[in-house]
Task: structure prediction
Amino acid sequence: MSRTTDRTGGSEDPFAVAESLQSVVRDTAAVERQRPAEAPEGQHTEAIRPDEQDRDTPPEEDRRDTVVVDDAMLGRRETVRVPTQRRPPQVKRAPLLVAALFATVWATLLTYLPVAAVIGLARTLEGAGGLTGAAHAGLAGWLLGHGVPIGTSIGPLALAPLLLTVLIVWRLNRAGLHVTRAIGARHSGSVPRALLAAVAVGSAYTLVGVLAAELTDGRGTEISTGRAASHFFVLGVLGALVGALRGTGAVATIARRTPPFLRHGIRTGLVAAFLIVGAGAVIGGLAVALGGAQAAEIIANYQTGVAGQAGITLISIGYAVNASIWVAAYLLGPGFALGVDTIVRLTEVTLGAPPMLPLIAGLPEGPMGAAGTTLLALPVIAGAVAGWTLTQRLRFGRDSAWRATRRKGKNAAADPEPSWLLVVTSSLFAGPVAGLLMAVLAWASGGALGSGRLSDIGPDPLQTGIVAAIVVAVSVSLGAAATRAFRRG
Result:
């Protein structure tokens, strides 16, 4: 940096430099006016203003004063170099393939290791095999959690523990979210980029499924590689798609393009279906708790020691979601089967020899009678609650339906009422949505435990879906209409 002669040597005060620079830089404008060609030496100059007749009538705010600038004086001033504005550093994004592989491997480890650890602990303490056998058994159980049938000497095992499936879907959801962040698609609102991330995760997960099937096949178990590949691809794409849509913000993009009655109907149907499953979980849990003595007796009959009993308990917990769906079908009316030619419903109970698991401690011994039929009101109440949330959501927009009334207080009555057409169409459309979801859950919760009498376990998907659609459509409509009438009254 250059220094002037009138400054102390070595002085590089940035404030003084900036002040001197500011005093030099001036805006100037050309002035059409006669003046001496050269100012007399030693004579000071001053600013001049053009007369009104000499101006080309510029606006008042455009008038500028001009000064004579002494080049020699400018040369003696200290100058600084002003840096240009730096561009923000470009963040290096991971390639899609690398991000998908890393997220998929991480999701695989977090879902497989707990299964292998539990089974390995039980086998090691019981002396049934080493780490290799535990890893093989854990891999077979992990494949079963994806719905892949396991061929055994007693027949196919195709009853998936849905609690493990829920864990798998959750980790795949997180994998899709992480991939969208890694490739820079977060909050982009792009549906194609979300689909691309989901397909990438699903493809990588398919490779994992094929590898797992090859490692498990041929050691007392039979695994179809093609079946494993299809299950892993579908589960991987659907699980990752949920996270990718959330990560990119494409959910809002899709919602804006969807007609209002479809948007509200889908959401209300999902709420109603999950409330019905929740009611099934509560009733099923109470039934098992009341039959706790029978459950303890079943566990003790295995005579496998502490580790074996812990393993049986954990297996029963893995099927807790299945049991919740079965009880939900029981509350809806169609009921469920626990073997060939068996049925468990409110008005009829026909059982053979059920599987000896602690969960059967909650099975009813016979028809519930007139008092037990009041349980049929639980799905109706769940649908009515979903109808109430629908009206609250329509009134308060995106506000939480559960807290809107409390937050709005007395001013809630001033909010405009939604149109009857939107309320009715959304309520009616919620029925098929809930019915479809309940049918899928009923299908996923069922399966076979061998090729004998336990080859048919679970509710009938078609009957469960049809009954759920009718119950939800009617109860949601009644709940929404009652909420509106009560508010007006």
